[in-house]
């Protein structure tokens, strides 16, 4: 019943904004776990991609980290000015800022609690966390070389506003690196049209749904253990669905192909 109501209300921009704000403020406030660093569904590379080798013990969430790695390494970020929109708990921002050597990395999120948590956890000298909205970025024209966006755009009230903001803050030749899902294939078709309409040029688009399904399957035991440890018992089932555990509607629809997850590189 509640899920059906949420589906109806999600047609309204104001509700999508409110839903994202309340959900992610509450998650960071009530589950400020310092070992839960990522909130994306994870990625397992194809055999064509060179595997990521990290020193043992460098992360407890390798698969969500790989979502960042295999997106960010589509371009060389060395000495670039990078903005991330929707940085969540900051794990991806810290990984890119410390490993891929951008000159600066500004990580923005709507949820003040997520920003506070990120500031507490990460202190790289080239990394800065800022609260703000994807639909009204608090930066001047031509401020960045690259915008990174991981599994966040589906939550925005007005996606064209976000894309026009990305275009505004990117310098000429700047790049948007984005991964996200849409609940139907038609939703992804619409998103592609919105990118084109924004004036950004799509350089590559890949359907990475199968790689995300594999990651969900591989991370499932660990994810369930984390939920059991961190989430109060009465919320665990609902949270499992939100987190896309194996058997959840998110997992099933992604696996059967009604929901799709794509990776985009687009240029200004
Ligand atoms: C599924 S989480 C992904 C977080 C992070 N990218 C990761 O992969 O761990 C989506 C994030 O987008 C943020 N978000 C949602 N709407 C936003 C908006 N309008 N502006 C900025 N961030 C937003 C949420 O607060 C949340 O942190």
Summarize the structure.
With 268 residues, the protein is α/β, with parallel strands linked by helices. The protein has helices at residues 2-9, 13-30, 62-72, 91-99, 112-121, 159-169, 185-198, 209-230, 236-242, 249-256, and strands spanning 81-85, 104-109, 127-131, 144-150, 170-182, 201-207, 260-267.
CATH class, named Alpha Beta
Note the beta-strand portion. Answer: 15-25%
How many β-strand runs?
7
Low-confidence stretches: none
Strand order of the largest sheet: 3-2-1-4-5-7-6
User: Main beta sheet: strand number and arrangement?
Assistant: 7 strands, mixed
What distance lies between the first and last C-alpha atoms, to the nearest angstrom? Answer: 43 Å
Question: Topology of this structure?
Answer:
Blueprint: H1 2-9, H2 13-30, H3 62-72, E1 81-85, H4 91-99, E2 104-109, H5 112-121, E3 127-131, E4 144-150, H6 159-169, E5 170-182, H7 185-198, E6 201-207, H8 209-230, H9 236-242, H10 249-256, E7 260-267
Parallel strand pairs: 1-2, 1-4, 2-3, 4-5
Antiparallel strand pairs: 5-7, 6-7
S-adenosylmethionine is lined by residues 20, 24, 38-40, 85-88, 92, 109-111, 114, 133-135, 150-152, 155-156.
